[in-house]
Predict the structure of Serine protease.
Amino acid sequence: MKGLRALTCLLAGLVLLLAGALGESGGTRAQIRAAPDGPSAYPVETVIVAEIDGPIGPATTLLAENALAEARDAEGGMLLLRIDTPGGLLDATRDIVAAILASPVPVVTHVAPAGARAASAGTYILYASHLAAMAPSTTLGAATPVGMGGDIGDDLRAKAVNDAVAWIRSLAELRGRDVGFAERAVREAATATAADAVQDGIVEILAADTSDVVREAAGYVVRLGETDVRLDTDGAAIVEHEAGFLVEALTLLTNPNIAYILLLIGVYGIVFEFANPGMIFSGVVGAISLLLGLFALNFLPIDVTGVLLLALGLALMVAEVFVPSFGALGIGGAAAFAFGSFILFDTDAPGFTLSPAVALTATAATTLLLTLVLAAAVRALRRRPASGDEALVSEVARVIHWEGFAGEVEIHGERWRARADEPMATGERVHVHARDGLTLTVSRTPFRTDAAAGAPRSATTRPEP
């Protein structure tokens, strides 16, 4: 009996050890799933699917917030973010993560379709989500901060990296995901495939499409606020979220190349309106473009030095038109404009840097327009008018007939009535001083005006034959 009892205790101990080992190998999935009689069920009736395809920016934040609002208003709503992104702006990423953490409905991130990636900003969004899924042949990781712009010191870079590590570790701990990979993704730009991510507890679900994700999500326990709920997705309807006009417009405007071009169009329009008063069209187009460009810059990280260099370059090129500097101002303005263009956007985030081709083309076009076209416009303004009162004043006329203090003169091949303060002789050359209706005021002395009053002082006359 004692031998049998000892054998029984030994077998029981082996069973307990084996159960413990199996429990540890279950990893995160064992922690996320709960017994059916544990947390209350969350019946999912509507799954709102929003697509994030491309760099993460202000438009992505608006898209995510709108989709969350739609899922919150739906009966039994759940949001599924289908993402394929190379990364994006840090501020936009933090806004999206904050919205997910505060969401009253479950949020699932699905890296899809095959070949997609959740790099950099996408990794933070995935870690923040209640559930994470990946399609086969997808990757995630490489979450080292790159949105700091330009070369910075080692101390500042270390602070930025440590801050990002602390942030993603807190998200991993909150959702019960692999903390080690999260830290390596930031410090070492580590990446993981879909199969490895599921095996290592980085994501919970391996699914090829949205319907598979919804089906596999059934039974998982997630925390909404302070409450743990078990997802029940059987029979859930899948609804695609429409981005809407505002999101599409913001996506276009916050493209650095588009914002930059709008600014230039605005400057061109206003400059040419001042050079040619009364055109109206150029002024209206310029004002609208400038306002749209400034609106876009409000959402983008910009360098103040770049803005000042752009303004200085424009000012120098405009000054070249009015000041004879033999090209010095124009060349200096073009150089300042080019340098300002390259450092205008203070970020290295994918999708939010200015194309060098756009910057160089814009510099050449701006130099050409301001130094050649604007110069031609200014010369046209300075040219004597060909008609109207201005075309007659200071011109030379020939007396055709004269009696006393009035008579007729010929100017530009036309006969005009004329008056003067002195008698004139037929055939005499006289100078026009003013026009009153169809009568000219003339005299023998050349036309001169008061320089102190700001009028022209030229007394040049036609040489007499």
Q: What stands out?
A: DSSP finds 16 helices and 17 strands in the chain. The two ends are 148 Å apart (CA to CA). Residues 341 and 359 are 6 Å apart (CA to CA).
